[in-house]
Amino acid sequence: MGMLSFGPQSGYDIKRNIERSVRHFWNESYGQIYPILHRLVEEGLAVRRTERGEGRPDRHVYSLTPAGHAELEKWLVEPVESPPAVRHELLLKLFFGHLVGPEETRKHLVRYRDELERQLELYRSIESDFHAKNPDGACLPLLYGLLTLRCGLRVAQAYLEWSEEALEALATFASDAPPPADTEGKKS
After folding, report:
1. What gap in Å lies between CA 109 and CA 162, rounded to an integer?
2. Could you report the per-residue pLDDT of 77-89, keeping only the tens digit for each?
3. Is this model's pTM higher than 0.70 or not?
4. Among 22, 50, 99, 136, which is most buried by a count of CB atoms within 10 Å?
5. Per CATH, which fold does 3-77 belong to?
């Protein structure tokens, strides 16, 4: 509903706008978007109109109804789950890393660190674009977008620092660890 608050959109438009904005902290697939749109129409929270296309498929465009706007506003003022439930595959693999050893864990951490560096570069580029579009900070919708971006920047920076710390800890452990015992051919 939030994406429809910006104006009428097709499911494709919504997905494209998600990819351009909130995908770094909230993502929806087409398989989620279209059932939600159908449910919104069934519940009277949105309406659908069809734009006929010449030589291409018809385009279904959705708009929020006044009831949809009211429901969105109602949701926006509800308390948020705090802290949010987290599912972080890297942390789960790290927790059980003793089963595969430091080298495999190190590989995961290096890939993660490299991805975080790319993500930070992207976030900084987006932040620069925000400031170019809103140099005086007067556009309220852009301010809200910037606030979410700044959270992403801080979280990514914290994870980057943590990943460096974890890599150092693994390297220290590997250099301090005794060599593996040779169990073949030796009898006690």
Report:
1. 10
2. 999 888 877 789 9
3. yes
4. 22
5. Arc Repressor Mutant, subunit A (1.10.10)
